[in-house]
Amino acid sequence: AAGHDSFRTAYHFQPAENWQNDPNGPMYYKGVYHFFYQHNPFRATWGNGNLSWGHSVSVDLINWSALENAMDPDSSFDINGCWSGSATFLADGTPVFLYTGIDANNNQVQNVAYPKNASDPLLREWVKPSYNPVIALPDDVVHDNFRDPSTAWIGRDGLWRVAVSAGLKDGTGSTLVYRSKDFQSWERNAEPLYSSGDAGMVECPDLFPVAGPGDQNGLDYTPSNGAAASYVLKQSVMVTLSDYYVLGRYDDAADTFSPVEADNDCRTWHRFDYGHVYASKSFYDAGKNRRVLWSWANESDPEADYIARGWAGVQTVPRRIWLSDDGKQLLQWPIEEIETLRKTRVGLLGAEMNAGGINEIIGVAGMQADVEVVFEVPSLEGAENLDPNQLLDPQMLCGEKGASVLGGVGPFGLIVLASGDLQEHTSVFFRVFRHDGKYKVLMCTDLRRSSTRADVYKPPYGGFVDIDIEKERSISLRTLVDHSVVESYGGGGRTVITARAYPEHVAMANSRLFMFNNGTGAVKVSKLDAWELAPAKVNLPGDGLITA
Length: 548
Ligand code: DQQ
Description:
Layout: E1 18-29, E2 32-40, E3 52-58, E4 65-71, E5 82-89, E6 95-102, E7 108-115, E8 126-127, E9 141-147, E10 153-154, E11 160-168, E12 173-180, E13 186-188, E14 194-196, E15 202-210, H1 225-228, E16 230-237, E17 242-251, E18 256-259, E19 270-271, E20 278-285, E21 290-297, H2 303-309, E22 311-312, E23 314-315, E24 319-323, E25 330-334, E26 342-348, E27 351-353, E28 357-360, E29 368-376, E30 384-385, H3 394-400, E31 409-418, E32 426-435, E33 438-446, E34 460-465, H4 469-472, E35 474-482, E36 485-490, E37 495-500, E38 512-517, E39 523-533
Parallel strand pairs: 1-22, 30-32
Antiparallel strand pairs: 1-2, 2-3, 3-4, 5-6, 6-7, 7-8, 9-11, 10-11, 11-12, 12-13, 12-14, 15-16, 16-17, 17-18, 17-19, 20-21, 21-23, 21-24, 24-25, 26-39, 27-39, 28-38, 29-35, 29-39, 31-32, 31-38, 32-33, 33-34, 35-36, 36-37
Pfam families: Glyco_hydro_32C, Glyco_hydro_32N
InterPro entries: ConA-like_dom_sf, Fructan_Metab_Enzymes, Glyco_hydro_32, Glyco_hydro_32_C, Glyco_hydro_32_N, Glyco_hydro_beta-prop_sf
Keywords: Disulfide bond, Glycoprotein, Glycosidase, Hydrolase, Signal
């Protein structure tokens, strides 16, 4: 049954009960945000053959009301599951889904669905035409590796395009492009959008244009920005269970994509998140002219435990994404609407933290918190040396150099979800290294002491932060704590780490927050703001239905 338990999140999206995984078809329509998701309505596991599209609506992307499932597996072309897909607006503004059906022969095929009544802003009912599937399984594709149609885009020639993941029989992981005049009959382009023999099957492709460096506005696909804009291609890689993206150029005549200065193996690309998320999907939000990213964060405690809780899977806080000032990567930031949940605030200006310093942030309850802190680094003199092979694996480096391993410049950062005796705590921190005459900043979220339980997954996570610390001399950290979620944004959203934690002490609802510095060099906390966050309304019965 639904109901609260101490790990249930207060403001991260989840259904009232049972299983959720990938975000599907997010969109803004007639003043209402729609979120759909992979959902097993019967139990808290992924299940087999039971996947539906759950459906919730919101006016602020924070408070959500649950509607009936948008789609259930009930037709020959999806009878074994309605898997992931996307929403597209047709020329007249009507939204349409392209999604994967697991058909009666257990083949993966691509289907469309339309709103029964497009004048209803809530889009409660969806109709699957009987002419489905619109894209059958091709001969050279493995029968259970053909899925996850992207949002479609229209070219200067007036044809629609869609990207679909395909594991070819020769072992290549590919992203195919199909073209259509009418959204019903689709033809495969000879050239794939992406293909690699090394990364294996890739899933949930997302291709989208971005505005110029530093411009926080979003871009929608338009025929004219086809060749002009920079594009982002994102892939979810099954073997690493991680999402990767790269900037590149999209050729809107050939329908091919070329990464800018990057290896073709997508596992070498940037990561949206160096923690525990997968199957992310973005959408263009015409309401606020921005691009917003959703991602799924799975449970990482034993299956029997989440079955007993009756729910599994959350979504990260929706993030605004845009191109960094130097044009080299995307920046990510929690959408501004999250700030409406801020209540009690505590602040601090100009505190110095010496070696071994630890300061409690008193006055906000640490279970639902939003902490923004800026660390100034007066001297880089003591930075430890990094050898070249330590550059390859930031996660391993975070394991070797945890929060309690004294350093030169850092580790410094936050300790969250801490029990009174600090037996349980999760640390989120930076450490500055010297490498090749330059400085490298490592960001870590270390879960190894997050719970006294042995049977939960508690890795250290890590990624480098692409910041010129020598020039900037300061680095910011924002961490959102939500019961079993620790979502952290380093260096103004350059590096993001989302973790799931299961501390025993949260049952007592008395988690504490600290700042610390375990480096020999002093750091200055030039600014700290910490807020307790009010719970959002997230799909629970009694939360009420929004009215547009
Ligand atoms: N999850 C969906 C698939 C997708 C995978 C099935 C990614 O469509 O490839 O629930 O998590």
